[in-house]
Structure formats: structure tokens, C-alpha cells
## 1
Amino acid sequence: NAGVTQTPKFRVLKTGQSMTLLCAQDMNHEYMYWYRQDPGMGLRLIHYSVGEGTTAKGEVPDGYNVSRLKKQNFLLGLESAAPSQTSVYFCASSPGTSVKTQYFGPGTRLLVL
Amino acid sequence: AQSVTQLGSHVSVSEGALVLLRCNYSSSVPPYLFWYVQYPNQGLQLLLKYTSAATLVKGINGFEAEFKKSETSFHLTKPSAHMSDAAEYFCAVSPNQAGTALIFGKGTTLSVSS
């Protein structure tokens, strides 16, 4: 099992450009999450999904959109990137039952100039 | 609302010394608690978790944590630090609902000197 994978690993954008980050998991997990990590801030939840076709906002959703068309994939989109979105983005998944452990991907480093 | 506070953003120890990373939580109901470790340029890896089965939880790499309800604490310890323990450590709490996202502390960077 590959676990949770993220594509791309690193990306540089110019302000105003758009991009999509892809998260894939092969553990048949029901729940998936997108976090951003900034120095001294820990991890903050952007959006999450409790199942295929469903999404919900987290703590810092502004400027991001998500989609969960397939159970194994969770996409994070930036329609018009801003320098404040420079961060490391982590995807995670969990079985969604009584097991609350989340399994994390390796992260995507995004730099917005 | 639940929250997590990690005391000390940076902890430095010598190799072989005791490691103690502090975590206090706020929760109105019995929580699920986690410690994750992040090595440089990597994702988060689960060290251990508390799910109310036992107050002393043993994890990977010789780490353990004790849940103390009276102190609302879940401190992480390791008797003898190794150089390879140098990393960032995150404490997290999960609301008592399936699938709800974790709430993370701001992290503690552990440095180990020889």
C-alpha cells in the first residue's frame, strides 16, 4: 500500500495563477482532510470530506475549493493564488469509524510569488 | 470548544537525557489524544494515541505518554534521547465524533545534542 500520496511535491506560482493539488489514498478510507502548516501555527484545517461527493469547510477555507468525486481522491484548488497561501499543504485520511487516527501524506510545498 | 496547548516551542536535550514534551488539552468530554512526529521535510507520523483504554500509552521509538484527567495533560516522554529523535512533535485532540478533524497544538521542536 502506498498510503496517502500527494501531487505535486513542490510548486511555485505567481500571484493570480490557479492550481490543483491532488491527494490519493489506497486504504479505502471514508474521511479525508486538507491542512496547511505554517511556522509556529501548527496544522490548520482547510476543508474536509466525510464521504464521496461531500465536502465541508474547516478553520481556514477562504481562497480554496475542494472536490471529492471519487472516494480515493481529494482535490484542493486555488483559483487565484495569493502570497498568503504560501505554505506546506498536507492531506490526511481516516477510516471514519471509531478509529480516529489520521494518516498523513508527505506534503506539498507551495510558494506564491 | 476543544483546544490543545503545547508548552515550549523548542526543547533541547543532550543525547541520553530524558525527553519531556508537554501538552495540555481543553475538552468538555473525554477526548481522544494523539502525538505525531514530523521529521524534516516529511509528513506527520503517528507516535501514539490515547483512546481511554489505558492512561499510560506506549508508542513507537520508545516514547510514551500519560493521560492525567485531573491535570488535563498528555505529556510525552522518553527515558533516553537519541540523535534520531530530533524532529517536531505535535499534540492533537479529536472531538468525540467519528471523522471530525484533529485539532493540533502549535508544535514543539526537539533538538538533541551529542
## 2
Amino acid sequence: DAGVIQSPRHEVTEMGQEVTLRCKPISGHNSLFWYRQTMMRGLELLIYFNNNVPIDDSGMPEDRFSAKMPNASFSTLKIQPSEPRDSAVYFCASSVNQGDRYEQYFGPGTRLTVT
Amino acid sequence: DQQVKQNSPSLSVQEGRISILNCDYTNSMFDYFLWYKKYPAEGPTFLISISSIKDKNEDGRFTVFLNKSAKHLSLHIVPSQPGDSAVYFCAAISGYALNFGKGTSLLVTP
């Protein structure tokens, strides 16, 4: 049973370029989350989708960041234009609400380096 | 403002002994708590959870204790094994968002 799939695993790009990160959630999960991990701030939530609809994007740093979920099996996080301070590991996670269980399952992450 | 705090950045334990990882939180609205384990270059892996209506949950070698009055939870690993060496994150939920601590790096030595 495949877990959350993210691509690419590593991305190195120059400042000003557009970056697109991809995520395939676990089949049957109806919630999807994008997180960013940095040394300074740890793991922080960027955006949350439920049934493909963005519910909370208050964690998105600024207008350079955008996320979409065109269907239940695919989501993208785009940064345009990218800046060196965007360098971090970006995780996608998915979950399904079952009664009192709220576990989120994480992908392996995309390590982004912006030079 | 960090609502979930793991005040020990690292912990070293001998194989076979008990590992105790601690976590404190400030938001009394949190109603579900989780522990995640993370190896380098991998995503966090769900380990064990506890609802705020309980004070203990056990799964094999792993037990999580919740003290709501103290806003404190802990993860006990007994007996510790070298394969348990990883970073452990405490997380709390109110609604849907996971609020993570900054992690404790556990090293289990042979």
C-alpha cells in the first residue's frame, strides 16, 4: 500500500525561478496538508485542503506561494518567484477523519534549495 | 508563538533502558495528541496518539501519558533499542492543524 508520494525529492533552483512541488495523497484520504520544516521554525502548516477545497491557507508565507488540489489524488505547491529564504524541506501529509482518530501520514518531503 | 514545547533537544539512553521524552503545551483547547518519529531524509512517521479524555495509551514498547492539569505529556519507550534512535516530535491538534514541537533527538547506545 503506497504512502504519500512527493516529487521531486530534491530541487535546486536559482533565485527568481518558479518551483512546483507535487504530492499524491494516500488513496481514500480526504484531507491534505502542506508543511514546511526549517531549523528556525520547525514544522509549520502552510495550507490545509478538505475534499479538494482549501480550508485554511493562513500559513502560506506570502503571495509568492500558491497551492492547488485539482482532484482527490493530486496537489501542487508553487513558489513564484523563489527566494533563498524559501530553502527548506516541504512535506505533504494526508489523513482521513475516522471518529476520534486524527493521524496525519507524511510523505518523504522535498528538500528545496534556492541559490 | 510555540504552543507545543519539547525542552530537551537531545537524549541519550543505553539499550534496554527506558527512554522518556517530554512535551508541554499551552493551549487548553488541544484535544488530541500525537507522537511522530523521524529518521533523516524521511518524513515523520506516526507512532502513537492519545485523546484528551484519556490519561494513558499503550502500544507495545511505547506508552504515552497525558497530564491535562499540568498540560504535559510524555512518551515512554521500554526497552529502548538502537533502532529507536531518531528525532521524536510531539504534536497537538485543535480542529485539524497539527502543532508540532521542535523535536527531541534520541540516541540509544548499545
